């Protein structure tokens, strides 16, 4: 899929105020610093569409972008930032879970995890919430350029193996590097295929 147009629509703290749910929508989420903004910019071919924030955990907004007038890409606030206060965390949780559970046009969520790390508690908790609510998600491994090719394969296998302790099946997964623009075609193809359903 070739992206011709990608533009910012709105930032919201309440899912009710998000754009009318009239197009298929795909959300991107992960621990802060996982490489989410870089990935969004890489897949949309826009250097500064999603802001790479210098203060992780600061921006707690649901950001909508419209792609080729045909689907929404949603940048959700990151989680797992240690220094965040309990009330900020609760605010994040309410805003994000309300959105994920009630947004009627949300087709699938892409959960980003750093390929160099094992299954983290915050990722596990998030993915368990998704499963419990029967919300479909795919896994996106980020920063693959930081590992050698054989290490990438090993890391993916180990991560998916860990997931099988909690799930019967592992989700679909994508290996990406925003630095090298790896995984872009595969991600866009998946979204294109969903859009045809
Ligand atoms: P976010 O907080 O999840 O939006 O993460 P950012 O996109 O702001 O990235 C966090 C840090 O990781 C920044 O220093 C990026 O330059 C770096 N980063 C993001 N993606 C990649 C990648 O694919 N490869 C490498 N080597 N670094 C990356």
TrEMBL record:
Residues 22-197 form the EngB-type G domain. The gene is yihA. SUPFAM superfamilies: P-loop containing nucleoside triphosphate hydrolases. Necessary for normal cell division and for the maintenance of normal septation. Pfam families: MMR_HSR1. Keywords: Cell cycle, Cell division, GTP-binding, Magnesium, Metal-binding, Nucleotide-binding, Septation. InterPro entries: G_ENGB_dom, GTP-bd, GTP-bd_ribosome_bio_YsxC, P-loop_NTPase. Belongs to the TRAFAC class TrmE-Era-EngA-EngB-Septin-like GTPase superfamily. EngB GTPase family. Its cofactor is Mg(2+). This is Probable GTP-binding protein EngB.
